[in-house]
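Record pair follows.
FIRST:
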Amino acid sequence: MIEDSKISYVELPGQDLPATKAFYSKAFGWTFTDYGPTYAGFGDAGLDGGFQADPEAGLTKPLVVLFARDLEAMEAKVIASGGEIIVPIFSFPGGRRFHFRDPSGNELAVFTESQ
């Protein structure tokens, strides 16, 4: 079980998804699960993650994703602690999440699994 408030996933830009997957597979033995033509989750890397190739997603640097059992409560806690919500809660296959910016300008996300 994923622990609340812990890093659970990292998304990386993957503009050339086939080449990116081939590189990480050959160099490090990572495995992949495709979630459509512009997203591939990776495994066997020590930490779960994925490569985002959709230019409309605007991912230009790594995105650290934290876990929360109660997404709305965590969103409120982020705001109360001085974080800025930059992408409100939205659904995606497997769960829901939001993105925020910390006081240093770093973008992170928090997700919860589908019930």
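SECOND:
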Amino acid sequence: MDYKKSKAPSNTVTRDVQELWKSTGNIYESVAIIAKRANQISVEIKQDLSKKLAEFASYNDSLDEVFENREQIEISRYYEKLPKPTLLATQEFLDGDVYWRDPSKDGRQEEEDF
């Protein structure tokens, strides 16, 4: 996923609490969903960054020489400018792009059907 094309702001924004709990009916459940999605995004971004920076890794035991590569610096700057995973997850949640389910509620629904 290209996180740079996301509509998420790159800085903190005041949110309307009413918007956050509308889809779940519970503000705490909404925050838990956003937090879990933020963790997923964080892991995904970290894996992408590690994969890109692995190309520049040198396996020398010498601590005296540290080479700075312009491409490596540009990749690092790109990832530093991205919105934080929490902001991305919140924007996805508000846009309705996050799928979630509550297994405990699903079980109760099946019991009520019988």
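COMMENT: The first helix runs from residue 17 to 21.
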